[in-house]
Amino acid sequence: SCLPFLAEGRVVKGFGRGSKQLGIPTANFTQDVVDTMPTDMIEGVYYGLANVDGGSVSRMVMSVGHNLHFANAMRTMETHILRSFADDFYGGLLRVMVLGFIREMESYTSLDALIAAIHSDIDIANKALSEERFASCYDSDFFKHGF
Ligand code: ADP
Ligand code: MG
């Protein structure tokens, strides 16, 4: 539904679930950006492209879900960019282009299973995003100027 999907906004502190400790930091958007997501967007893991503060465009995997602590009312959109950064970029301007769906959300019985699933998501994202049909997306004006 509704892909590709573009979003831009500031990066804020997440819920401190320790993603970074697992080697999988996820940048969170402010709630007003999350609220621009299509309401029929299936909860799960997506792949696409992203950049920070107009910088180089990298591949990403993004989870779209809801926060259980707020009785399903609040949705979340968490982007793991497939490159390393020297520093955190809280407050930075994140732009994402969501290009494809990987899988629906699942609850994993162990941390190892969760990490294995994310590594498999990253493999799927890298394969898909090296396809010729996405080649022109990396140079999109959106990553330089926004909407
Ligand atoms: P939080 O709960 O605050 O989201 P995380 O452990 O998920 O904490 O870390 C996310 C933060 O890590 C991002 O907001 C960003 O500043 C930083 N970060 C560093 N490298 C990356 C990356 N490759 N992808 C996403 N965020 C990254
Ligand atoms: Mg996070």
Textual characterization of the structure:
This protein has 3 helices and 6 strands, in the order E-E-H-E-E-E-E-H-H. The protein is α+β, with helices and mostly antiparallel strands. The chain has one domain: Riboflavin kinase-like (Elongation Factor Tu (Ef-tu), domain 3, Beta Barrel). Strands 1-2-5-4-3-6 form a 6-stranded antiparallel beta barrel. The longest helix has 19 residues, at 111-129. The mean pLDDT is 92. Bound molecules: adenosine-5'-diphosphate and magnesium ion. Magnesium ion binds at residues 14, 19, 26, 28, 78.
Structural key phrases:
single chain; 147 residues; alpha+beta; Elongation Factor Tu (Ef-tu), domain 3; six-stranded antiparallel barrel; 18% helix; globular; binds adenosine-5'-diphosphate; binds magnesium ion; ATP binding; riboflavin kinase; nucleotide-binding; transferase
Which regions are unreliable across 5 or more consecutive residues at pLDDT < 50?
Answer: none
Helix content: 10-25%
Strand content: 25-35%
CATH homologous superfamily grouping:
Riboflavin kinase-like
Please give the oligomerization state of what you see.
Answer: single chain
Structural class by helix and strand composition = alpha+beta
**Tally of domains:** 1
- Spatial order of strands in the largest sheet: 1-2-5-4-3-6
* Termini Cα gap: 20 Å
Hetero compounds? adenosine-5'-diphosphate, magnesium ion
Domain Riboflavin kinase: 1-130
Pathway: Cofactor biosynthesis; FMN biosynthesis; FMN from riboflavin (ATP route): step 1/1
Organism: Ramazzottius varieornatus
EC number: 2.7.1.26
